[in-house]
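Students often ask why we bother encoding 3D structure as a string. The short answer is that it lets us treat folding as translation between two languages. Here is a chain of 178 residues written in the first language.
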Amino acid sequence: MLSKFDELKLLAQCALGDDRRAFGTLVEAYQSEIRRFFLNLTFGDASLSDDLAQETFIKAYTSIRSFKGLSKFSTWLYRIAYNEFYSYSRKRHEERLLEGFQEDHSELLGSYEDSSNSRLDINTALMALNATERTVVTLYYIQDVPIKKITEITELPEGTIKSHLSRARTKMAQVLKQ
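And here it is in the second language, the structure alphabet:
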């Protein structure tokens, strides 16, 4: 991980000098975090995660001059990633697919019970969540992002994020009990 000073230096080089090497260093520092974020949101689809991460970094590079430093660079980058995922989701109508998974878990659970003796994978539990709940759970539990930072990334109030986390825990527990 980069020190604050190194990060600021690289950001200045990118914004003022259009330094691609400096941005490359930033990409190297954050690519695994952003990719892991997308892997959790896309149920482990590595190809899609790579594409979304690449789009995120392209948008970050083209918008680097708009970064005002009011938040951490990582928060700003997660916000771009969050917007990129939702843009993709809207295009693919993912919400309708997820609602279908939520309505009928029995078929999905039956195949897992047969193959793994009632042991469910985290991706199966995440499928029970809507896109917003899945994003909040991924940021909070998997990426270890504090709630205050999640509010900056998602632009949702803190109470709403806590509600999403509570509902998500309940839904995931129900799926895992079955």
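Translate back mentally: The CA atoms of residues 40 and 138 lie 6 Å apart. Keep this in mind for the problem set.
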